[in-house]
Amino acid sequence: MPGRLEPRTKGGKMHTRAFVFAALAVLLVLLAAASLPVLAAGSVTGTVTKNSAALSGARVNVIDSLNVSRETTTSGTGAYTISGVADGDANVYCYSPNTKLLEHRLVTRAGAVRKAHLERQVGET
User: Fold this and answer.
1) Domain ranges of the chain
2) Span 34-41, mean pLDDT?
3) Is residue 27 predicted with pLDDT exceeding 60?
4) Which of 61, 82, 105, 106 is the most exposed place for a label (fewest CB within 10 A)?
């Protein structure tokens, strides 16, 4: 039929479409692989207290299994939450002026919220 385009298998539109489709498929695979560490992350939440009273303004730092450090400051109630912590072993540190460093070790899991409550006892500086 005149005016009807026939699919070409070499060098024409069909070949270009196949290339574009393959390139998009590769791009999707790469994007999915890049998002895996984000998907395999959890959160650490808890409270920091001194002599059973909330310790506000304390710095809480989490170093995860990928050696990535994330930091936040406790609220007025001593609460904190740190998200995006990689799967595996993690260390939680708490710093506050004129007080002793607190440390807590835990294991995080993808999508899970782990609790780390840090308490400074009477007599500790």
Assistant:
1) 7-39, 41-120
2) 58
3) yes
4) 105
